């Protein structure tokens, strides 16, 4: 399980709920660190080529 994306989703949902309720946004824009991790099956396929 990708815990970082789960946390980002939780923050996004909290902000959405705040917006729906008409509350001012507590947070601004955040820069998210991107990370791509190839699955094992994808890596093995690349090694055969």
Write the layout of secondary structure elements.
Elements: H1 3-20, H2 40-48
Q: Could you describe the 3D structure shown?
A:
With 49 residues, the protein is an all-alpha fold. It has two helices and no strands. It has helices spanning 3-20, 40-48. It is elongated, with a radius of gyration of 17 Å. The mean pLDDT is 77.
Percent of residues in helices comes to 55-70%
Taking pLDDT < 50 over at least 5 consecutive residues as the criterion, the unreliable ranges are none
One letter per element, helices H and strands E, the order comes to: HH
Give the integer mean of the pLDDT values. Answer: 77
Give the biggest beta sheet.
Answer: none
Number of strands: 0
Helical segment count: 2
**Distance, first to last CA:** 29 Å
Strand content: under 5%
Report Rg. 17 Å
Shape: elongated
Structural class: mainly alpha
Task: List the main descriptive attributes of the protein structure presented here.
49 residues; mainly alpha; 0% strand; elongated
